[in-house]
Specification:
Strand order of the largest sheet: 2-1-6-5-4-3
Helix content: 25-40%
Distance between the termini: 34 Å
Strand content: over 45%
Shape: globular
Order of helices and strands: HHEEHEEEE
């Protein structure tokens, strides 16, 4: 039997690999069509707007070491909180270390988990 929680944890790891390599196709594959990101600045962005920023250099991620990935399941819905130490340069700032927390929501679509939202903060 598939370990649903581990599947979601692996999605989070893949999410960060794609962010670092700017693999927008890989990210789109993880995201539901209605996915949105809420930045710690309070800015809400659709997947397309966020991915454009990843490609144009607004968001640059260099590494991510994961401290914890907690998953809660409720049928075809799930929540996940990932805490990672990330090296990044965003919005024209210098490269520096961040302790980022991502609070994600997910839903199962056609048998596959998809991220529906993420809310970024620091921890």
């Amino acid at each position: 039997m598939v370990d649903e929680k581990e599947t979601i944890r692996e999605m989070y790891r893949k999410y960060w690999k794609c962010m670092i390599t700017k693999d927008t196709d890989g990210l789109r594959d993880l995201m539901a069509d209605d996915y949105y990101l809420l930045h710690m600045t309070g800015v809400k962005q659709s997947a397309e707007v966020f991915l454009k920023g990843l490609l144009d250099g607004t968001f640059n991620y260099y590494s991510a070491d994961h401290d914890s990935i907690e998953v809660s399941l409720n049928g075809d819905q799930a929540t996940m909180t990932g805490r990672s130490r990330v090296m990044a340069a965003v919005y024209g700032g210098r490269k520096s270390g961040w302790r980022l927390q991502g609070d994600f929501t997910l839903r199962k679509e056609n048998g596959n988990w998809k991220f529906t939202s993420s809310n970024a903060s620091i921890y």
